Amino acid sequence: MKKLMLVILGLTLAATLFAADAATLVPAGNRNAVQPDIPGASSRRTQATNTTFQAKYRKVYALLQNDAELRGKIRKAAAAYGIDPLHIVGAIVGEHTYNVDAYDRLQTYYVKAISYLSSKLTFAYDGEDITDFVQRPEFKKCTMSDSYDLWECREQVWNRSFRGKTVGGTSFPNDRFGATFFQPYYAGQTFGLGQLNPLTALQMSDLVHKVSGLPELDVGDPNGVYKTIMDPDLTLPYVAATIRKSIDAYKSIAGFDISGNPGLTATLYNVGNPEQRAYALKVENEKRRAAGEAVKLPEENYYGWLVNDKLDELKALF
Predict the structure, then answer these.
(1) pLDDT of residue 285
(2) Which of 24, 51, 165, 203 has the highest Cβ tally under 10 A?
(3) Who's near 193: CB < 8 A, 6+ residues apart?
(4) Dist CA 253 CA 284 (whole Å)
């Protein structure tokens, strides 16, 4: 019986590995012939600073081109997480083209990181700290030990039980969990070379601790979280971990290998929730197969489209 169980276990493992290896490789390049529409908020933010997307792209490209040390750090982070450095570069380029301007020098990010230790930040909404908020009974099922699963669960509870609702006399905004509790300056603000938001960093804490050996993040220490986001030596492993999660989610859930398409990983870095999006694509393709239709490949958004469009230039950096 024991031998039979071992055989069954071996066959099950082999089947699992075969399924993972059988994922459809998504071709390089863009699926859309023209760039998808750029959100109005990004356009307004760029116009307000009297610049253009092209100028912002050139500025972040120059930062990468002129700083061999930064490129070395990117290579190191990419290798640790088993991804091509172009995935990290794509995320950085997309963020600084469509979000905020890059600083001219890498050193500025280190200075900014230190500055966050001198101010008292909080993760709270309407006077309620996040550490107290997640003790509410609605979160009692979120007992996972892994930081990614834990904060994913808490975000789902937020969307289901609090977002846009009045609970216990408190009206909660119809907004993302991260924007409501984790951005003490103003909603939508992200920071650092990778423009990470604190919730994403908290999700990736255990993976980064395991792979890179960095200290685990503490939601009760917002200053420490922001220093991690701002310090290039600390944030690059988080950028790499976030991308690794997206690649793994699309392979294991939707059956697509996106590891050869930096525009797709950049898109997921921009929009977030890779597991939910992978499940949605899986469901859509199951319906397509049942109807005898061709499966739908993952597609890039405006942000990822730029990365793929500029890929030859970005490759030249390495």
Answers:
(1) 97
(2) 203
(3) 92, 102, 106, 109, 232, 235, 236, 239
(4) 12
Q: Residue 145, exposed/middle/buried by CB under 10 A (0-12, 13-18, 19+)?
A: exposed
Tokens of 229: 């986001």
Q: Give the DSSP H or E segment for 251.
A: none
> Is the backbone of residue 215 left (phi > 0), alpha (psi -120 to 50) or beta?
beta
Phi then psi for 291, rounded to 5 degrees?
-90, 5
Start-to-end CA distance of the chain, whole Å, equals: 55
Q: What are phi and psi of 129, to 5 degrees?
A: -70, 150
Rounded-to-10 torsion of CA 242, 243, 244, 247 = 130
Q: What is the pTM of this model?
A: 0.87
What is the pLDDT, as a whole number, of residue 40?
86
Token reading at 13: 């493992």
DSSP code of 294?
Answer: P
Q: Which positions ≥6 away from 55 have C-beta within 8 Å?
A: none
Please, what is the angle between helix 222-230 and helix 232-249, to 10°? 90
Alpha carbon 33 to chain centroid, angstroms: 25
Sign of the Cα torsion 196, 197, 200, 201 reads: positive
Query: d(Cα 177, Cα 185) in Å, to the nearest integer?
Result: 15
Which has the closest alpha carbon to 238: 254, 230, 284? 230
- How far, CA to CA in Å, does 226 sit from each of 156, 182, 240? 23, 10, 17
In this structure, are residues 289 and 304 in contact, taking their beta carbons and an 8 Å threshold?
no
Burial class (CB in 10 A: 0-12, 13-18, 19+), 235: buried
Measured in residues, the chain has a length of 318
List per-block mean pLDDT (blocks of 10 residues) for the chain, which spans 318 residues. Answer: 44 43 89 92 81 91 94 97 98 89 67 71 93 97 97 97 95 94 63 85 97 97 89 93 98 98 97 94 97 96 96 95
Number of neighbouring beta carbons within 10 Å of residue 65 = 14
